[in-house]
Specification:
Eight copies of one chain form a homooctamer.
Chain A lengths: L2 H12 L5 H9 L3 E3 L4 E3 L2 H5 L4 E3 L5 H13 L4 E4 L3 H7 L8 E3 L4 E4 L9 E6 L5 H14 L2 E5 L7 H5 L2 H5 L3 E6 L4 H9 L4 E5 L11 H8 L6 E3 L5 H14 L3
Parallel strand pairs in A: 3-4, 7-8, 7-9, 9-10, 10-11
Antiparallel strand pairs in A: 1-2, 4-6, 5-6
Chain lengths: 251, 251, 251, 251, 251, 251, 251, 251
């Protein structure tokens, strides 16, 4: 796919250092490993900046064990999301000792070397109940190498709590705003700062919050321009986007 | 229905001033007039504080003409909502000269004597596009006799515009907050003031605002407690509720 | 935020009783306390008439324990909503003895002194299954200091039950009408009384009631003008609004 | 399909009055006529009590002309629903003089002889705007041969208007209740009478009435047992059901 | 409310056999009993042909016990719907021995004397999984006094199964058609018979059946005219309507 | 229903080899067996190419046992879908030894002789969590007699994994593409191959995937023409359609 | 992408008939043409059996003119869908004389040579109003080269009309069933035939048909296994799938 | 709000250069201008990097004229979105000559000096019909000062068109992907590149695309991590977010 690599390969063929058959084989040998039920993508971190991530729901214990063992054995960073504590306890003995489980974030992290520190991402929540989603974002960001500023429970019902944190918000490169119920926090932050803002609706609420649909719609319709929205409770996705944006400021 | 009246009636029967048949007839003579296709409720203003209101969509021109002429002839106050200018022009010549048409509010008002002035209701909008709904509320409030404070275009994308009007908000008895898009204005106001707040979602917006469903849901899920919500674009209903609340402060 | 306070402060600065740095610090010291995961808003009761309320779902036991202990220790009134009996039993020993738990309403109340009695709020239900939501409203109202008239199981399938209670309804300042299924009770009450009516749709029903969406929509579309609607099963929110309205009649 | 007819046929075959081939042919000759784009079902009235009905939307003028001419020429009763006045004017000259067009009901009727009079069906509306749907029911009922009692504009916002008509309601065999907005009329009627009640939600309303979805859901969730519901604005379908029920009382 | 009764009462007042105060009292003494949390409607059977029915979900065990004991003690018929076997076992000892519990229908019935037999109602299901809803209808019908013909598992995927039962269908007075998935059974039956057809959508299915929304919508849009629809899984409501229709054929 | 059979029958009647009564009886004797609660359709395999399939949810254990025993005893192939392992364990002892249970596919299969091998159907999944649905398709296909190529975990987030399998895809007769989340796999495959593609949305995902609604809608709106879609998680239905298509290529 | 082509290319490079740079260039020269606002895919017919199809809504007249002229000039077959007659009249003069416009199907077809005749696809509609969608399928099928059997207006309200056409249905290779309202036709056909059935829901209907959502859901939940569904009113997509299936029977 | 400014102000008060009253006044004088119906926010560009933007729908012609004249007179950049050509023609004469109207993007731009050139934002569309939304993004980006790479009509039905543009995509700082129908383009791009990707669903499509809901949901559920989504057809919002991200790479 990469023109330079293909060109090198073609040069080798041209110089008969490689037969056409060998070249064809090479072109096809894509760097993933086939576990029959799961194709592990060992080059993803190189390609997209995000390591292979395992979404746990719907996978059986044997599948998870097999996938995680394989990934850990390759030496790359590994993230598993939405893993219940119960599942972790059953997998623990099969995984390397260096694996860390984050209970509130429901995440498992395997990371060889601590990443170098970068610009800050502010992770803000409207309420205390939104914290698990914010922690999924935090753990992901720290694994990817972004610094994190946590500002929790600053919903718009008590606006002064948010206004008090404006300086911290304005000194971050990106802001992840996590809110359930009516999700107004995102619009208010969007009107107060320059930075890119990523809205994460949460399923916190009841009745006509429809498991997070209401804050999702509210964030998509924000009157403050320049807000990107991710799926309900998707702290992980918000962190991936925030990290990619954060990286742009590094150069 | 009213025990005192029934008692009076029964007393008259007991004293043979009224025959049982006459009494039965009286009990049945409820004060509305039958136009065959519409039953005009002449005592409603007495009963519920709100005059007979004519919702125009779905009614034919001859029906509207007949209903409005009849109502105006009784001397009570009359309100017609969602009347297009086109319809008004066709009805105009059949109605009393005192009838007023409010173009932006799409309302027709017929009112014998100006009501006495009362406490203030603040009518606030997030944007300029929400003004027609706010005017429906304003016209209704003024017809019912409530004073109105208009604060337009103070949406949360520029929070300072709202904060600057806090004193006006806090000196009103009730606040009607009109907002489309994500409707965050209502939550922010609800967190800043003591007064009862009535949220009116509007169909201003596009795409995932779903003709006002998004601000409706957002207002219903507000993290600020004590907010009552009315139907999308229902400035009239919000005004009725606000006026009833306003009246409580008069005594 | 409060101009009088700022003016006082500025006067002190002007008279050099306060240095600019101290004044800046004071302006920033907003009266909430930071528990890291929750910012407790000690002045909310002063500001909005409603004490700090803890919405329990989504908060861990340690978080709830920490938040509630802190709040109780400040001497203000405390309300916690949607607390299961199981959670209460686990928290009980950590909280002051004066704490009361209302099993059917799923609420915890901590209140130093009984509030002075005020005008009445009628809390009406369509059926027996709507009672838990009505009790959430009742407990909230009584904690805030409003008197309550309970009228339960008067749904429109047997209209005479409601008509029999008209006098009680008409002698209340505000009416909270709680109904599931098709929520017609709210419209019928709205057509019979003068008072502000607050509709609380409940999730009572099955099939196409969609967990309370049907009565919610029905109440929003009521043909009786002047009805404010709150979220599904939100007895607490209805009570906050009713209490604010009730207070207007006190002056 | 009908065993008696098949038996007769088989008897004829057994007695060699009919060859097997002829019998097969007879079994296949079902009494409909093929216009290529529409199969006219001439025996439907016999089979289901309802004549062939033409639903006009989506059919081209030439198709309508051809279908209606054919049907009228067979001497059976013909109903066409949702025909705009504009379409009728273009078809008029091609149809028999006896054809009647009902402008408010948007229906065309062709009927050879007036049906014998039967028990009454009450057709009730909540508002004046619901009348076109009620007229679709009325015209259909009268064409099928049921007597009709019309009671219009008796919505629950003014309950006395409905209570005044109770005797008329109770002397009907079936009640068709037509209502938009929140559709509460149906539940209230259902709680007051013995008769089968058919609810027709209408698209009268705005905002969260969602073009009639709200009254539809409300009627389906009625707390009054024994209510059958038809599609939004489906006066025709309600009339068919009411007529079938009415016929049961004739025998 | 009943004019004859009022007239009698007024006659007694006129003849001074009753004082006005006594008459007023009588007019108010409506025949229901107040259990504080539930108003039992002892005259409902007289008024609407359907006995008082207890919808169990959302009621506590003590509430159910108190309501059912009271109702059974009055000698009227009693129906309780959606009662789990577990709840029944806990209530059993407090109720009269004559109480019957129908496990598959989740219903409790208390009935003093067997009703006289009447015309038949056909209860038809598309599949075996729809049977519990059909049994709710059957038990209700038999308690009310209607005869029942059960025709189960005749869905349209094997049309011959239904066509084979046409004679039974055509000899019933009313047909209740119970179907989940796409609910096509109702339309097919509606096209084959004269009788009133009541459609009961069920929550049988998965994915895009949305817990019964799909057959509900399908039945509401049936191309066969004259079908009344009830709520999802509402066998009880369908039976009430069918019984009322069945009664019309008795006279 | 089949003209040839009827003709033969009529010939026999004509030749008096069969009395009309016997013929009528024969015409009515449709080949299904009545278990009272379930009508088993023994000729379905002959008629539609798919054996009788038992959808387990909503059926009681005794019903399942009775249905499956009867079906197995007739010697035809039997499939049961969505049977939990728990249910299977309880049924096992009552069923023939040859019955196989597929744990991940939640299916029970009873098959007398292995079918002859035919063209291949490719069953592709976007992720590992989609595998249970893919296995329902696989087991169904193999029971019906189609060969299967399994290609799992080739979602579009790593496009090279899919492109690598293009030859396998292109050598299949039909492709079943199973995907949750946004279901983009189906469109991408549809743009790369000639074959008929059947999309199976799965409930894999969270938040705004709405239990599979999102991939369902995405597949229905695919920009690649020629894609047929089945219900969410309906591996069985996709396999039936794929097998019917596969059979066309056999002739 | 195609291994054989790459291998040939690599062989040429190996034999130095092609420089690596030229080979790279060739690998990149994909056969589409860039009109800046539209990339015309000249090899699509070769690749997927379906010619380039132009979806007209949302494209400006100049864009349509430019795209269609270019496509026609290449000599391949061209289809344009959802083109209003008005647009066609404005484009007509710019296009080759051989272009045909199908008014009822809203399609434009440009086809050099008539395709060879193949197996038949039955296109069935429930009503007359569904015919435009059926014609979109018919025109597409005939352009692609499939024979078509049209069977219109055989909805399940008059089942005999469909049963009469069973032989025609059973002699087709594939069946496209087009239905609005409740879409039951698809399930009934699916239960009667062996062939693959493709369901096309249409927006014919009103109220709770929700512009075709109801038949769409009904078809997805069909109790007859083996039905593939396409988007609402998507006659074109159904035809593409049917043609691909039809082709499998040719070999 | 800004501590430095407050400190300066307080210093002035401390030095008695400013009286407390004057200071209070200054603290309140926020830099917006009040047109009664619209509050123009002259400092927004300074505060959030985005100039004041006028959303035209719902605003009357006189309102638009007044707002735009005022804004243009201040010398800042002005953007107006969703302005129909008709409206522009009526406003044209009242606005400065330098105003530009972009017909396909429905935007009006007033810009004093061309911004300095920065990194590139790639704006990609799936189809030709998505171009108007892409142009709204393009015009916004260019007004804000970001460079734009346009890549149109590269939807996944012809994957080679997209793969051919990979180098252009990979050399951009941010990618805006605009797609209707099933929106799969966004996921495919997200899996191929490192850059932040912003998904813009469009209302291009029909039937079950539900005016853009389908691509909106698909993008929110993308299996490619790191995608931010904006409202349907919101090219403007996507551009604001992309520009903010682009700016981070400038430093």
């Amino acid at each position: 796919m990469n023109p330079d690599n293909i060109k090198k390969l073609l040069n080798q063929v041209s110089k008969n250092k490689l037969s056409p058959e060998q070249a064809l084989q090479k072109l096809k040998q894509l760097p993933y490993e086939d576990l029959e039920f799961a194709r592990l993508d060992h080059h993803r971190q190189l390609r997209s900046g995000i390591p292979e991530v395992v979404f746990c729901p719907g996978k059986s214990l044997p599948q998870l064990k097999s996938i995680l063992k394989k990934l850990c054995s390759t030496g790359q960073d590994v993230l598993a999301t939405r893993m219940s504590e119960d599942v972790f306890k059953k997998l623990k003995s099969s995984l390397p000792g260096k694996v860390r489980y984050h209970q509130q974030a429901h995440m498992l992290v395997f990371q060889k070397k601590p990443p170098t520190c970068r610009g800050k991402v502010a992770v803000v929540t409207a309420g205390t109940s939104d914290i698990p989603v914010a922690l999924e974002a935090t753990v992901t960001l720290e694994t990817l190498g972004s610094g994190v500023e946590q500002i929790f429970d600053v919903g718009v019902a008590g606006l002064h709590r948010l206004l008090d944190k404006l300086e911290t918000l304005r000194s971050s490169r990106v802001i992840i705003a996590v809110a359930g119920m009516e999700g107004a926090l995102v619009s208010v932050i969007g009107g107060l700062v320059d930075q890119p803002v990523i809205g994460v609706p949460t399923s916190v609420g009841y009745g006509a919050s429809f498991e997070g649909v209401t804050p999702l719609l509210a964030m998509l319709n924000s009157c403050s321009p320049g807000i990107g929205v991710v799926n309900i409770d998707n702290g992980f996705g918000a962190a991936c986007l925030a990290h990619k944006i954060n990286l742009l400021g590094e150069s």
